[in-house]
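Appendix B, record 7
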Amino acid sequence: MSLPVKETSSVKSGEINYTKEIFLLALIEAKPEEIVTYEQLRHLTNSPVSSSNWMLKWAVRQMLLKHNIHFENIRNVGYQRSASCDLVKAGKKSIEHIRRTTKKAGCIMDTANRSELNRDQALEHDAQRGVIAAIHAASRKQTGDSRVIGNSDPKVFQ
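Structure tokens (predicted):
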């Protein structure tokens, strides 16, 4: 005997799957540097689409995980398929975000009053603070020439 399934929203699961598939197909067909606009997606699905649409976010994530294709959000416009040369910029942007986040996390960790921590808590605090400091140090902008002298790979630094 099976129990009746109660729909938790006004949208049925078949409609959700169909909408997700439409988003995936629209993103797959995009060429590098092409923008898939919210307006185009609205015409395809006959429903309003914005960057906060969870099904669209799911489709963009699936494109990255399953198809190895990255899309960048263009505010109030849509999603742009990244060209290979743009991924370097995305990597730099991610590193800058990590640097800012670890700087803030370090400041938060430094506000702890160590006299209020027991021995185990103090050890855990120190370990976490050390990891945060290491990540922050690794994400800082490098100054000077960071090339390694005597690199055996002839393709590097030519």
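Remarks on this record: The first strand starts at residue 35 and ends at 37. The beta strands are 35-37, 71-74, 78-81.
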